[in-house]
Amino acid sequence: MKMGQAIATPPAVEKSVFDIKNLNLWYGKNLALKDIDFTIYNNEITAIIGPSGCGKSTFIKTLNLMIQNIPGVRMSGEINYEHTNLLNDRVDLVDLRKKVGMVFQKANPFPKSIYENVAYGPKIHGVKKKGKLDEIVERSLRDVFLWDEVKDRLNTSALGLSGGQQQRLCIARAIATKPDVILMDEPTSALDPISTIKIEELALELKKNYSIVMVTHNMQQAARVSDRTAFFLMGELIEYDQTSKIFSAPSDKRTEDYVTGRFG
Ligand SMILES: Nc1ncnc2c1ncn2[C@@H]1O[C@H](COP(=O)(O)OP(=O)(O)OP(=O)(O)O)[C@@H](O)[C@H]1O
Predict the structure, then answer these.
(1) Which residues does the UniProt record annotate as the domain ABC transporter (predicted)?
(2) 11-20, 34-43, 97-106, 212-221 — which is least confidently predicted?
(3) How far apart (Å, rounded) are the C-alpha atoms in residues 231 and 213?
């Protein structure tokens, strides 16, 4: 190397968290996911978009195997997570769902106190000491920017919170067990615009420590928060790329038609 020559910074290595290959999923005889190849990367927000019925919810529910609760579901292919193919290897579902947490469209806090909602997961996973639980509850509620709003009413019912607060509580409940991945299935579709913005800001903050996969009907939301966007159509993954590319210069005409509002 010559004197004064700059040392090139090697490109950051993108680490994947899920590596999905040839995933097919049937509800009875109906093929709902067709040959999906999909890599989900660490510390990113991955948005899943597409018209109603294209398979977004089905896909996201394969990642923590929640889909298996539905009778008649059959899958083939590979869902590789932490060197394990979730479809072939024996998987401890309690452990998987600790690592791959989920938040739903409609906030679904347990009919218990705010404190108990957050402490629930850690207790199941063996944390018994009150001091440790207190610490986890406070940290989780701080991480979702809810602590200051609820610290004086931790022992009151979670059902007394507003919709937006309930959704942040559900995210706190998901992160209390220190997952790797948080799945969000239309997390803001039942919320007002201010609560929606709060959840989006929260997702941007959380991706520093977690990987987030977010199903959304709202294309502006995908464009605002996600690093990569996947466009599904009739069970197929049509295009998956950097979000900026999907919204400004998609490769597939069908993606372009969808993101420009020509159908959907
Ligand atoms: N429990 C089920 N049993 C049978 N078919 C189902 C079931 N759930 C979904 N499907 C079918 O699978 C396909 C994909 O549905 P899915 O709910 O994944 O779509 P989606 O993109 O999430 O739709 P939406 O945006 O309306 O929520 C649809 O044809 C749907 O009818």
Answers:
(1) 18-259
(2) 11-20
(3) 13
Q: Do the Cβ atoms of 168 and 107 come closer than 8 Å? A: no
Q: Which long-range contacts (C-beta less than 8 Å, at least 24 apart) are formed by 29-32?
A: 31/235, 32/58, 32/235
Q: Is the pLDDT of residue 199 over 60?
A: yes
CA of residue 77 to ligand 1 center, whole Å: 19
Q: How many CA atoms lie within 13 A of 101 on its CB side?
A: 22
**What lines the ligand 1 site, CB under 6 Å?**
27, 32, 50, 52-58, 70
pLDDT band, residue 89 (cuts 50/70/90): confident
Beta strands 16-27; 30-41: pairing state: antiparallel
Give the percent of the chain with pLDDT over 70. Answer: 95
Domain positions in the chain are 16-259
- Whole-number Å distance, alpha carbon 57 to ligand 1 midpoint, is 7
ipTM of this complex prediction, to 2 decimal places: 0.98
Backbone angles phi, psi at 160, to 5 degrees: -85, -5
CA distances for 4 relative to 1, 7, angstroms: 9, 9
Q: What is the pLDDT of residues 217-255, one digit of tens each?
A: 999 999 999 999 999 999 999 999 999 999 999 999 999
CATH architecture of the region 16-259: 3-Layer(aba) Sandwich (3.40)
d(CA 58, CA 236): 12
Q: How far is the CA of 32 from the centre of ligand 1 (A)?
A: 7
Nearest Cα residue to atom 1 of ligand 1: 70
